[in-house]
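sry for the spam today, last one i promise. struct tokens for design, 194 residues
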């Protein structure tokens, strides 16, 4: 492996190409078996993993391996995939349609609904309907927060909460209700576009 690292560091494109070809199928099989992801996604992750490995070699972060190259590459891929999912969980874009017919695309950062690549418009509709049908205080808080994008301070004034902490706690409870309803009524397969 030291030779391979040195060859890549010296700019030997054949060494990188050989590494790419040798690790491609094992990586794809491992990722698809472990994470059940689409071929398109696994190929993207593989490309990013090879690039990260290459950059680590060029930047001097990787000078020798104490394990096999596949172990190192798989670890990079695993981290890339998990980071991608964490990001999707934090930033799922929804279009909420409220009873007053306003629409707005919002990012639901506090909500930890499981995100899947290929999320369907059906999930957007379901979440929208759930929020619209929620009783107060959830409806009011989520409407002001997500639809009108009001700050915590502005919502405090309109809804007469004692402090931001109380409002934040109530908002999280409301978002968890939406999450629980979705998990109770549906599975991820209900919302995947094929």
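last one done:
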């Amino acid at each position: 492996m030291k030779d391979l690292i040195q060859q890549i560091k010296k700019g030997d494109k054949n060494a990188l190409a050989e590494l790419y070809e040798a690790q491609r199928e094992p990586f794809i099989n491992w990722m698809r078996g472990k994470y059940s992801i689409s071929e398109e996604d696994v190929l993207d992750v593989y490309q990013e993993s090879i690039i990260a490995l290459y950059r680590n070699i060029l930047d001097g972060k990787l000078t020798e391996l104490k394990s096999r190259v596949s172990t190192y590459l798989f670890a990079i891929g695993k981290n890339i995939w998990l980071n991608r999912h964490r990001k999707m969980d934090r930033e799922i874009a929804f279009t909420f349609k409220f009873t007053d017919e306003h629409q707005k695309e919002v990012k639901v950062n506090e909500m930890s609904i499981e995100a899947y690549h290929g999320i369907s418009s059906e999930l957007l509709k379901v979440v929208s309907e759930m929020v619209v049908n929620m009783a107060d205080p959830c409806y009011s808080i989520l409407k002001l927060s997500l639809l009108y994008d009001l700050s915590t301070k502005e919502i405090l004034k309109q809804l007469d909460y004692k402090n931001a902490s109380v409002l934040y706690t109530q908002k999280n409870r409301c978002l968890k209700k939406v999450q629980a309803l979705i998990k109770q009524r549906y599975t991820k397969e209900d919302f995947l576009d094929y």
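Helices lie at 2-9, 13-35, 39-58, 69-90, 121-132, 138-147, 152-159, 164-185. ok im logging off now
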